[in-house]
Amino acid sequence: MVKSQLVAADTVNRVLSGASLTSSLQKVWNTEKDISAQQRGSIQDISYGVLRFYGQLDALLGLLLKKPIWNDTLRCLLLVGLYQLIYSRASPYAIVDNAVSASRYLEESRSAGGLVNAILRNFLRQKTTLLEKAAESETARYSYPSWWIRKLRAQYPADYQTILLESNQRPSMTLRVNARQTTSLEYQDCLSRNGIASRARKNNILELEQPVAVEKLPGFAQGLASVQDAGAQLAAPLLDARDGMRVLDACAAPGGKSAHLLELADVELTAVDNDTLRIDGITQNLARLHLHAYRVLHGDAAHYETWWDGKPFDRILADVPCSASGVTRRHPDIKWLRREGDIVQFAVKQAAILHGLWQMLNRGGKLLYATCSVFAEENKLQVGHFLGHHPDARLLPISRISQTKLVDGQLLPTPHNDGFYYALLHKV
C-alpha cells in the first residue's frame, strides 16, 4: 500500500499543478516499470477518487491543519489517506500506518511521519463531526468549484443537485457492438459464456454489471465491440447517414464516432482532426474494427480551406472541443483544471467551427452539432446564436429519433450515461 499511496499522491499533485490525470498516469506507467497489476489498479483508483472528492477532502484537511503544509506531495499524501479512510474498505489502522511509512520517502520528511499520524488519527476520532462541518461548504458538499455549482444552479434550478451528485459516481462501462460483425443479442450471449454479466439498454447498447479490462472482452481485438458511453452512442444514429453519402467527421479523434458511422452505413467518410498525435488513434480504431475511411486527414475544422477538396458533404458530424463538463465521472480532474473563463473561449472556438463546417454542407444536408458539456453557453445558446445568423439553417427535432430523454437536445448525466448535447441542423 505504501507504494500505491506515494505514487497516487504524486499523481494528484501533478494534476493540481495543471497536468491532466490521463497524462499524469501515463507518465507513471512509462516510468515506474516495477509496478504490479494490483498496484496499478490501486494507484488509478486512489488518484481518481481523490480528484472526484477533492472539494470535500481539501475542506477536511483545512479543518485538521493548524498551519499550511510545506510540501505539496505531503499534502496530497494526506488527501490520499483521508480518501481511503472515508471511501475504501481497507483497515483504518493499515491506511494510517502505511501513510506514515510513505511519508518517510518524501523530502524534508523528518517530522512528516508524526504529522501524518496525528492528522489521520485525529480525523478518525472526530470523523462524524468533521464530515458534518465540511459539508457546510457547497464546494465540499458537492466536490465542485463554486463557480461550477453557481452556473449549474442558474441553468438547471430543479436539476443542478442531481447533476452534481450523479457526476461524482463511478461511471458505468457500456459497449457498442459492431453491427458489421455481430448483433447485440449474440454478443451479450458471448459475454455471458465468458462470465461477464451485462444488461441490454435502449439503442442496442450493452451495459456491463461490473467494468472489466478491455483485454477480457471476447473478440475485442477482432473488432466485435468497442467501449463507448451510452450518450456518445447517440451521435451516429442521429446523423442519419445513408449508403452512398459523403460524410465528414470534423473533430474525429480518437475515432469512436467515425467507426460507428461506418458500422451503420456504407458511406464515403472523411475523418479530420487537428491533433496530429491523436490521428493515429483514428486509424488504429478503424483497423481493429475492419472498417475503412475514405480519408483520414490532419486539419482544423474552422479553417476548411486548407484541406477541403471543394466537394460538399451530405452529412457532417461536429463533435466540437468543449469544457467536457458532462464527462467528469470519467475525468474528475476536469473539475479542478477548468476555469470559468474557459467556457467563453470554448464558445468562440465552437462558433468558428460551426461557421466553417456550414460552408461545406450540401443543400438539403444535415449537420449534427455535439458536445460532452452541460453548460448552455456551449449548447443551446451556441446553437441559438448560429440559427440567428444563418437563415438557411433549421433545427430538427431529435427526441423521437433518439428514444432517449433529451430536453432541448440536452442529455444530463445519469447512472447509465454521461452528459451530452445534440442539435441536428438542416440546410434548407
Topology readout:
Layout: H1 2-16, H2 21-31, H3 37-52, H4 54-64, H5 72-87, H6 92-103, H7 112-125, H8 127-134, H9 138-142, H10 146-155, H11 160-166, E1 173-177, H12 184-193, E2 198-201, E3 205-208, E4 225-227, H13 235-239, E5 246-249, H14 256-264, E6 268-273, H15 276-288, E7 295-298, E8 313-319, H16 333-337, H17 340-360, E9 361-371, H18 380-389, E10 393-396, H19 399-402, E11 410-411, E12 420-427
Parallel strand pairs: 5-6, 5-8, 6-7, 8-9
Antiparallel strand pairs: 1-3, 1-4, 2-3, 9-12, 10-12, 11-12
Helix pairs in contact: 1-2, 1-3, 1-5, 1-6, 3-5, 4-5, 4-8, 5-6, 5-7, 6-7, 10-11
Please tell me about this protein's structure.
- With 428 residues, the protein is α/β, with parallel strands linked by helices.
- The protein has helices spanning 2-16, 21-31, 37-52, 54-64, 72-87, 92-103, 112-125, 127-134, 138-142, 146-155, 160-166, 184-193, 235-239, 256-264, 276-288, 333-337, 340-360, 380-389, 399-402; strands at 173-177, 198-201, 205-208, 225-227, 246-249, 268-273, 295-298, 313-319, 361-371, 393-396, 410-411, 420-427.
- The strands form 2 sheets. Strands 5, 6, 7, 8, 9, 10, 11 and 12 form an 8-stranded mixed beta sheet that branches. The protein has a 4-stranded antiparallel beta sheet with strand order 2-3-1-4, with helices on one face.
- The N and C termini lie far apart (62 Å).
Please count the beta strands (DSSP E, at least 2 residues each).
12
How many helix segments? 19
Q: How can the largest sheet be summarized?
A: 8 strands, mixed
| Low-pLDDT ranges | none
Distance between the termini: 62 Å
- Assembly type of the chains comes to single chain
Morphology call: globular
User: Helix coverage percent of residues?
Assistant: 40-55%
What does the average pLDDT come to? 94
Derived from helix and strand composition plus strand pairing, the structural class reads alpha/beta
**Radius of gyration from the alpha-carbon trace, in angstroms:** 23 Å
* Proportion of residues in extended strands: 5-15%
